[in-house]
Amino acid sequence: MSHYAFEAHDHETCVESGVATAEEICTERGLQLTRTRKRVLEILLSEHKAMGAYDILDVLRAEGLGSQPPVAYRALEFLINQGFAHRIERLNAFVACSHLEASHAPVFLICRLCNSVSEVQSDSRKSEISRLAKRAGFAVELMVREAEGICPKCARVA
Amino acid sequence: MSHYAFEAHDHETCVESGVATAEEICTERGLQLTRTRKRVLEILLSEHKAMGAYDILDVLRAEGLGSQPPVAYRALEFLINQGFAHRIERLNAFVACSHLEASHAPVFLICRLCNSVSEVQSDSRKSEISRLAKRAGFAVELMVREAEGICPKCARVA
DNA sequence: GCTTGATACGATATATCATAACGCTTATGC
DNA sequence: GCATAAGCGTTATGATATATCGTATCAAGC
């Protein structure tokens, strides 16, 4: 398993292949990865950190791609619906998906020092939440699993 | 395991014993369960649902206990720090703790139809998040585990 | 060509959630 | 009692998110 957010890696590849894969998937699904949507995805991919909608909007604004909140939120909604991005509930912020190839049961590890967010894939059926929900007769539709703490990089420095 | 939110139960007891236990704990810890804090706890205990800070504030306002947002947020902060209440990240809202006696590794089951929130206790060490974090060398300080879906009560009706 | 419907976008306004900062009051330890 | 800390009231503002209405674009069907 890889933890891009916490490890040195060729980051150019993350952005390029992220966008390329998203483009392929959109073509397959007959959807449009419009200029704004693509740019928002790139912005999110540019760092393994969560960004607020208004931070993203600032970039869009500077580039003349839109200046009002709905512009950012609509693009984010699209990216999230297609699984290209995730919302981090704990931060009210957004990250690019770093496991586009895989199916979805992400766990997010959020470093409170460097703000990096690592997405780890997991089998949702194995999760404690699923087990407890099943026992309670609760039908899970959506799962939020986030941990806040210190990433290995920051732990070494501290 | 009990799922008060999803089952018939003597709800008076929830409120009374919740407040009583909180009072005991505050005494032990040398803290003040002031009028406002106590009232906010009662409000939260009055239903097994998450309430927004402004909903709580409305009640306080109607009772002359405070009219500005900080009043509600301060009380909530206290209750959360003491473990008497929890924040539901997914909803930006708050619930009373329903397992005051137990230690903390709650999972929340949120019904999107009736808005009830059930708190289930779990051993945090067993959790998938802990396992994945450990593997990544990530030191977890705080965990968010929430599931949204349909509760058994609503499933029967639908 | 024209209409229709679907999708996306632009813009305004507003709703919702949260905190900083300041000064006053009350509780508590000595 | 007095000093200190804890709590509270209030104002102002910051941060996040959505409802709504109108317009542009494009493809499908006539």
UniProtKB/TrEMBL annotation, chains A, B:
> Which residues does the record give as Zn(2+) binding sites?
111, 114, 151, 154
**SUPFAM superfamilies (alphabetical):** Winged helix' DNA-binding domain (SSF46785)
Residues in coiled coil: none
Q: What residue stretch is flagged as signal peptide?
A: none
Listed GO molecular functions? DNA-binding transcription factor activity; transcription cis-regulatory region binding; zinc ion binding
Record key words, sorted: DNA-binding, Metal-binding, Repressor, Transcription, Transcription regulation, Zinc
> InterPro entries in the record, alphabetically?
FUR, Fur_C, WH-like_DNA-bd_sf, WH_DNA-bd_sf
Q: Does the keyword DNA-binding apply?
A: yes
Record Pfam families: FUR
One Gene Ontology term from the biological process aspect of the record:
negative regulation of DNA-templated transcription
> What does the note under cofactor report?
Binds 1 zinc ion per subunit.
Q: Does the keyword DNA-binding apply?
A: yes
Identify the cofactor(s). Answer: Zn(2+)
Do you know which Gene3D superfamilies this protein is assigned to?
Answer: 3.30.1490.190, Winged helix-like DNA-binding domain superfamily/Winged helix DNA-binding domain (1.10.10.10)
Record's GO cellular component terms: cytosol
Family, similarity comment: Belongs to the Fur family.
Q: Which PANTHER family match?
A: ZINC UPTAKE REGULATION PROTEIN
Q: Mind telling me what this protein is named?
A: Fur family transcriptional regulator, zinc uptake regulator
Organism of provenance? Roseivivax halotolerans
